[in-house]
Write a structure and sequence with these properties.
heterodimer, A: mainly beta, seven-stranded mixed β-sheet, 11 strands, B: mainly beta, six-stranded mixed β-sheet, five-stranded antiparallel β-sheet, about 0% helix, globular
Chain lengths: ~110, ~110
């Protein structure tokens, strides 16, 4: 059973460009979570999605960030007009149950904004 | 806002020594998860504790969840160089609109010297 998959593993963007990060949850999991790990900081929750629904986006910056989890295909975290402060590791996790008590993480996407 | 205080932040010990990592909060969690993260990789789940007072053992690792489900500890017996890494605790929200998200501690960087 394949684990959570994320791509790309590394992404380099110039300021003002868009970044698209993809996450495929574990087979049978319908709940996806995105977390951000800034340098020298812990993981911070960003957003929780189920298929076609955003359940909790309380950790998402109000501007430039969006997330979706369509009926078909991977979950996408989109960052528009990236700035240097967006440089971080972005992790996706998935869980099979509603309460998400056990979450399994992907390898992450390291975003570097030049 | 829920907070999870993890200590110590850094731990450097000799092979064969014992150690304990603590996670404390004033908030109640429905469960608490411990992860280990290697550089450049995502967090890998070690254990989930759910019941107050629960103790789980994983070889030389012993995990305990506090009776009130506000704190947890990780004890490693006879540490080995292979135990070196970043250890993270994460609490799952007990309910409400944010029941899907994990609150992470700051992490403990463990170095075990041969």
């Amino acid at each position: 059973n394949a684990g959570v998959m994320q791509n790309p593993r590394h992404l380099v963007r110039r300021r003002g460009q868009e970044a698209r990060l993809r996450c495929s949850p574990m087979k049978g999991h319908s709940h996806v979570y995105w977390y951000r790990q800034l340098p020298e900081e812990g993981l911070k929750f960003m957003v929780y999605l189920q298929k076609e629904n955003i359940i909790d986006e309380s950790g998402m910056p109000k501007e430039r960030f969006s997330a979706e989890f369509p009926k078909e295909g991977p979950s996408i975290l989109r960052i528009q007009q990236v700035v240097r402060g967006d440089s971080a590791a972005y992790f996706c996790a998935s869980s099979p149950r509603v309460r998400g008590e056990t979450q399994y993480f992907g390898p992450g996407t390291r975003l570097l904004v030049l | 806002t829920q907070l999870l205080e993890q200590s110590p932040q850094f731990l450097s010990i000799q092979e064969g020594e014992n150690l304990t990592v603590y996670c404390n909060s004033s908030s109640v969690f429905s469960s608490l998860q411990w992860y280990r993260q290697e550089p450049g990789e995502g967090p890998v789940l070690l254990v989930t504790v759910v019941t107050g007072g629960e103790v789980k053992k994983l070889k030389r690792l012993t995990f305990q969840f506090g009776d009130a489900r506000k704190d947890s500890s990780l004890h490693i017996t006879a540490a080995q160089p292979g135990d070196t890494g970043l250890y993270l605790c994460a609490g799952a929200n007990a309910g409400g609109t944010s029941y899907g998200k994990l609150t992470f501690g700051q992490g403990t960087i463990l170095t075990v010297h041969p």
